[in-house]
Amino acid sequence: xxxxxxxxxxxxxxxxxxxxxxxxxxxxxxxxxxxxxxxxxxxxxxxxxxxxxxxxxxxxxxxxxxxxxxxxxxxxxxxxxxxxxxxxxxxxxxxxxxxxxxxxxxxxxxxxxxxxxxxxxxxxxxxxxxxxxxxxxxxxxxxxxxxxxxxxxxxxxxxxxxxxxxxxxxxxxxxxxxxxxxxxxxxxxxxxxxxxxxxxxxxxxxxxxxxxxxxxxxxxxxxxxxxxxxxxxxxxxxxxx
Length: 241
What we know:
The chain is of the alpha+beta class. The chain has 9 helices and 6 strands; from the N terminus they run E-E-H-H-H-H-H-E-H-H-E-H-E-E-H. Helix content is 53%, strand content 16%. The strands form 2 sheets. Strands 4-3-6-5 form a 4-stranded antiparallel beta sheet, sandwiched between helices. It has a two-stranded antiparallel ribbon with strand order 1-2. Helix 2 (32-47) crosses helix 4 (76-99) and helix 3 packs across helix 4. Its EC number is 5.2.1.8.
């Protein structure tokens, strides 16, 4: 528990930690960056003068009561949870106020990387086998799924060669280039990526849409970029007297 004695900061069981010990442990366990992030967030929310309505506060309390059924809403634990939930509410309002206005343009800047794809893949390390697989699929002698089960050397062997849906941005640049230029059901010849050869066929392109979940994702992305910049700009050090 946290105490209020002059030189006593933290008590855990029978162990009492002094201020210097607490700071040393925070540094040793590399908790300073996380602490500074929270301080930066608090300062930004305060500077932006983020406010919330009584209706929003009521909704927060109702959500907490539902999540923690049976908890005493007048008790200390509930009040601590409420403080944390209100802070999160303010943070989301800060994100919206700061980056929500130009989110549409940011979405279109990022759209090519946000599109998702479903594709078929076979990886092999032997050029002869790769060429044989390619021509068998192209001539319709065997299905992609059959050849994936038989020859694929990666995890796609367990999924009949199917991969996805997956964000384009998470793939190897060479694979992104192939899939971006392909039409559905277009088979690409063997291509070397790192130490393996890949045979790829685009199955379906799933264009990104600025729906609610995508909007939240992009707001979080912009916020994290900003926060990382703040962390880089601000210098800090621990002083233990």
